[in-house]
Structures are given as structure tokens and as C-alpha cells.
Amino acid sequence: DVKVTQSSRYLVKRTGEKVFLECVQDMDHENMFWYRQDPGLGLRLIYFSYDVKMKEKGDIPEGYSVSREKKERFSLILESASTNQTSMYLCASSMGPSAKNIQYFGAGTRLSVL
Amino acid sequence: AQTVTQSQPEMSVQEAETVTLSCTYDTSESDYYLFWYKQPPSRQMILVIRQEAYKQQNATENRFSVNFQKAAKSFSLKISDSQLGDAAMYFCALTNTGNQFYFGTGTSLTVIP
User: Fold this and answer.
1) Nearest to A109 by CA among B42, B41, B31
2) Considering only alpha carbons, which residue of chain B is nearest residue A100?
3) Which residue in chain B is spatially nearest to A9 when comparing CA positions?
4) Is the pLDDT of residue B85 over 80?
5) pLDDT band for position B33 (cuts 50, 70, 90)
6) Helix (H) or strand (E) holding A24
7) Best B42, B45, B55 residue to mutate vs chain A (most A CBs within 10 Å)
């Protein structure tokens, strides 16, 4: 079974802090994704990566950056956390650039910025 | 632009009954995939079913089936013989590249014992 592991289920941070959300997948998937999930808004793509050191902006990249130094790990960085970044963050991975490929999701990180 | 719309924020069904969740989408691409994902409370999102746009036959997975109407750009999910474990948030999603997925806003399904 594919496993996508997010390092924290819950995080509480202060405004202005630098926040790292980590995601690791164990199936040698090429694609990795970071989404933000908010009630009534569904899932919105922040960034995705199709290879090591490669990244593409999604629909809402402002205030976020990402890092993919190794194929299995994809990090989401909030350079200076703000209260409007309080949300559920979901990481996902898929095999590669084919539309038929299924996305596998992590359990999510619920981030609260105070 | 590609969009996915789920117009039912909440639905409920009696255990053992059938329920249909609606999804409409818009895309200018001719080749694409559609998915239904399930997110149980506090648990990981998992794939329920997927449909290739060029296949006319509706996909089926056990108690889950879809009604894919390509011309109408409609992709509804039917759950038969509903079980308590079907209670979850359901998301409809669309992709034509595999690099970017577009999700609806979700439908919260309650199963009443």
C-alpha cells in the first residue's frame, strides 16, 4: 500500500513564525502536491512538484514556498505565518504525469496560527 | 479554465438505501479523467472511483457507481445499500494532465441508522 506520511497531525504556531510542514511518500512517486482544505472551498492546490527540485505554482501559492530535495520528501514552508493561513493542509502523491494516475493522500495537518 | 461544482453541501441517507451525489464540471479538453474521493472524519482521503472521459461505459466499484453524462458535463456518484461506514465528505475531481487536479467543494454525507 502507498503510504503518504505528514509529520504532524496538529500544529499551533504564532503569527510571524516560519513553519515547515513535511510530507514523505514511500512509493517512488514522481508527483507530489500540497493542498489547502477549507470548509466550503474544497481543496485548493498550493504547489506541486513533478520531480526533484522541480515545482509549479498552483492556484494559491502566495505566502507559501516548497522544497523537494529528495524524491520522497516534499516540504511546504510558510515563511511568515499569518492567521489567514489557519487551515487543514493535505499532501498527496501520484505516480507521474498521466491523468489516469490516482492521487494518494496523507492524513492532513491541521495548522492553527494564533 | 477547468472547474468542478458540487451543489449539495450536505446529504443524508437511511442505512441500506441508495443516495446520489451530484457533480458537474467544465473543461475544454477532450481527454480527461474524473474521480470521486472519500474523506472519512479525521481519516485520509481515498479514491472511491474514477472514470475516463473517452469511455462511455459508466465505472462501477462494488456498491459505488457513476452516471457519466459527457455532453452534459455531469458525473454523479450513486451509493447503493448505504452503510454507516459510508459517512464521509465526498469530493469530485477532474484532471486532464495528472499534474493539476481540480476539486469540488465537497458533499458531506450522513448515514442514518
Assistant:
1) B42
2) B33
3) B42
4) yes
5) very high
6) strand A19-25
7) B45
Of A55, A105, A107, A65, give the one whose Cα is nearest residue A85: A65
For residue A61, what is its C-alpha cell? Answer: 501559492
Nearest to B90 by CA among B75, B72, B71, B104: B104
Beta bridge partners of A6: A23
Look at residue A89 and tell me whether its pLDDT is greater than 80.
Answer: yes
Give backbone dihedrals phi and psi of B86, rounded to 5 degrees, phi first. -80, -10
B9 vs A31: CB contact, 8 Å cut-off? no
Most confident of A93-102, B49-58, B77-86: B77-86
B105: left (phi over 0), alpha (psi -120 to 50) or beta: alpha
Q: Give residues with Cβ within 8 angstroms of A51, minimum separation 6.
A: A30, A68, A71
